[in-house]
Amino acid sequence: MNRLRRLPIDVWFEPIIILVIGIGYLLWYRSTTFTSTEQAALGWATLRTTILAHIELTVVATLIVVVVAIPLGVALTRPALKRFEPLAVNIANIGQAAPAVGLLVLFTFWLGTGFRTAVTGLVVYAILPILQNTIIGLRQVDQRTIEASRGIGYSATRTLVQVELPLAVPVILNGVRTALVILVGTATLSTFIGATSLGTLITTGVTLFLPRLLISGAILVGLLALVVDWLGRVVELAATPRGVS
């Protein structure tokens, strides 16, 4: 009980919300009579494929963003490349400034339609939070701590790996968590360029005026975003060194 009290409120309260919404949707799903079109989209075999496709799209895009943005953010905090930081951040900001649908459509002229194009568009759209948080996290490490580590004989690389990055972890992971939630929501738009996602349920529900299909898509995307946000928060809490908040 004492351990539960020491946990931040969102760590234990968010799963309760997820369970309440999930159980509510399941009860509604089991008690609702669907049309043949709705049954075709919401049958478990089809729905499972759609959910897994949405998760795959989100995970692949996130992994690429992490592999690109974190090393780039680290490099831009080093003295040799520090002057390029404003330029890199402004370029990354283009993805956030452009409408997500427009960005995906533009990429179809270059890459065609499908999964690869959707991933590329999502990577461009979500790179800013991780890049910016990596830079901010490393910038806020106390300079005296860095100087002390160099003073006891640590190399620049060892100082980065053993001192700067561990202290910057909470801020960096917060950026990853933000990017994940953005990607879960934005991935629904990939349906417009031929990639399977939960957006298919939403667009079909709107096009054919099937409210139950639309509601199902919206609730499932919301649940997935909540689950991802909670998992990201748990990882963030577990990876944060003791004494760092």
From TrEMBL:
Regions that span the bilayer: 12-31, 51-75, 87-112, 118-138, 180-203, 209-232
Name this polypeptide is given: ABC transporter permease
Pfam families for the chain: BPD_transp_1 (PF00528)
Keyword Transport appears in the UniProt entry: yes
Recorded topology in the membrane: Multi-pass membrane protein
The keyword Transmembrane helix belongs to this UniProt entry's keyword annotation: yes
ABC transmembrane type-1 domain sequence ranges: 51-232
Species of provenance: Nocardia acididurans
Family: Belongs to the binding-protein-dependent transport system permease family.
Subcellular location: Cell membrane; Membrane
Protein keywords: Membrane, Transmembrane, Transmembrane helix, Transport
InterPro entries with a match to the protein in the record: ABC_transp_perm/SBD, MetI-like, MetI-like_sf
Superkingdom, natural source: Bacteria
